[in-house]
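BUG: 3D viewer hangs when loading the predicted structure for this chain

Environment: internal workstation, default settings.
Expected: structure renders.
Actual: progress bar stalls at 90%.

Input used:
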Amino acid sequence: ENEVKVYYSDLTASSLVYLTLDPENEIIDKPIMVKEKYICAKSESDCVSYFTVAIATNNHKDLRFNWLIIN
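Structure tokens produced before the viewer hung:
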């Protein structure tokens, strides 16, 4: 799998999402990126906002990363 959703209830349209690879990962030659941000509408009562982190390759072991959100 080359993407994962990270659910975060305080995510907003103006949130900045920063990603860094965990230093214990094997070296990879592809960057990780925020592929999508989904912000729940106020009318969606059971919804949790999320962002999708993706990498352009499937050729990796479990990839660990850190994330920071600035609202």
